[in-house]
From TrEMBL, chain A:
Its EC number is 7.1.1.8. It comes from Aspergillus niger (strain ATCC MYA-4892 / CBS 513.88 / FGSC A1513). Binds 1 heme c group covalently per subunit. This is quinol--cytochrome-c reductase. Its cofactor is heme c. The lineage of its organism: Eukaryota, Fungi, Dikarya, Ascomycota, Pezizomycotina.
Amino acid sequence: MLARTVLRSVPFRGVARQSLNKTSTRASSSAAGAESASSPFHLTLTASAATAVALGSAAYLYGQEAFAMTPAEEGLHPTAYPWEHAKWNKTFDHQALRRGFQVYREVCASCHSLTRVPWRSFVGVMHTVDEMKAMAEENEYDTEPNDQGEIEKRPGKLSDYIPAPYKNEEAARAANGGALPPDLSLIVKGRHGGCNYIFSLLTGYPDEPPAGATVGAGMNFNPYFPGTAIAMGRVLFDGVVEYEDGTPATTSQMAKDVVEFLNWAAEPEMDDRKKMGVKAITLLTGLFAISVWVKRYKWSPIKTRKIVYSPPVSRR
Amino acid sequence: MRILKSHPLLKIVNSYMIDSPQPANISYLWNFGSLLALCLGIQIVTGVTLAMHYTPSVLEAFNSVEHIMRDVNNGWLVRYLHANTASAFFFLVYLHIGRGLYYGSYKSPRTLTWAIGTVILIVMMATAFLGYVLPYGQMSLWGATVITNLMSAIPWIGQDIVEFIWGGFSVNNATLNRFFALHFLLPFVLAALALMHLIAMHDTVGSGNPLGISGNYDRLPFAPYFIFKDLVTIFIFFIVLSIFVFFMPNALGDSENYVMANPMQTPPAIVPEWYLLPFYAILRSIPNKLLGVIAMFSAILALMVMPITDLSKLRGVQFRPLSKVAFYIFVANFLVLMQIGAKHVETPFIELGQISTVLYFAHFFVIVPVVSLIENSLVELATKK
């Protein structure tokens, strides 16, 4: 469009005729100039077509999604929930974290490990030192080899990590019909959809698979899981956990709490990060404002200068 | 004489950053250079810090990165800065190149600066790719597998070269170790190249300007005018970077890379980071593997022909409306390619990718020379009465 308008303002035929005559002097740098320069209208057309193709394909591409897999293989896209802790100016709800940890301990921990989270990291976040020490001591850990080279057992310390439910991957697979329950330390960061996906998965088990859906033996139907057949069954039912703070333990409440807890497990630095972010943005905005002021202060004489041309005057 | 002008080292600083006379009319689009230098600085400082805690071993790499994220004081800040500044680096370098294309910065006498700049882009991409492998998540491993396998397209010796790069028969511990060593080395090569880039410009005619004419009619010293002008964009850059680092640090990353590398399981889609997508799209648009690899590398090297194929007598496109249209089509096409690079290989994206690839190369080899010749003619006709 623009190209056409631009070219329309130029007398076409005159251009074409004259440019043919002037080719030798004008396009000394290239021999290709003669035939191309003689037909600017074709080029306008090409340019317009190219613009149309580029803009059209851009609109087309941004407008739709491609799926290499069928919707079932892809898994149902989770609903976007308004997570309070995901907002830029919000921290984790630490009571929810505490409830979520209770759900993890009483429900998830029988199959899923949380190997990157040590007992110490709970202190000051959702539990007191004494609570965590007691919790750590409930577990046994191997000692260093003693003088005889024997490895003994000792109660856990704050510096220990949460023990895994199975000795190794093979044991985990053997106990779960060949499926490996993934470690949950990074699950929120390591899955497309993050919190929304985990929440949808936990609460998305239908009572029965929909008509037409086939699920293999020992598998369960969940529309949010890629492939829809998941080895894990529905684990959250109303009242399966009794919250110590009296919150009614509905399925969605537990799912929400445990997702927030797993988000903390994946990003324990989030509260600090956002707090530091607010400080950084505040500070930098101030510095930016000052820098704009200094720049204008330094440049104002340049921007407001007047350049005068005094023609030479003959003095005779 | 002032020590700034007589001291053998300080006088270099003086001639580059203090007294250095710059054209008075350069716009804010001339600020990307200082921002890119800042990016390189941030990357080297954060990178060296990360290297103090990182373990380049297939068994421990992922764990050591998580150790940095969880246990090292402010380790998350250092790593998120490193990861997001890499994206910012490419975002700015594309703007910097776009500025060069728009204002004809590649034209003589700045061809050497432009050529070094193209080499810098290639080294940057290599460095970014090597760095992305280091956390050794799923996308690290499989990205490394895909990209190193490109070399197998070389006739006769391709497979041998790939195994030489791997140091084995697949991406393994030796690969990770050498990638770490090279990722540590290349930023310093980049710094040297950036210095060459600067010297090549400084010792010819210095910065161009938006009018495309000589800058000698009106110049201002670098200090204080351009130091304070650069500072404005530096703070804007820090604000935007902070928004990413502190509030959405993983927005530009792939969640697949928070899953530990598993050679037994291929992720559903192997996608490079956003800044490599246009070239990945060009690679995938060519049905032949060898030609695809050649096309991908040529796509970057095509920048080098700009000084030759732009036959215009004017510097830059600001007074050449046809070229302006061609420039914006090129930019739109680049963004289209970036989208296509992230799509699965299937109709219609294959065909669109091929059209975009043709348009990409046509810009450098056909559109620019033809349009510049037409404009030469028009200018000549208009000025000759």
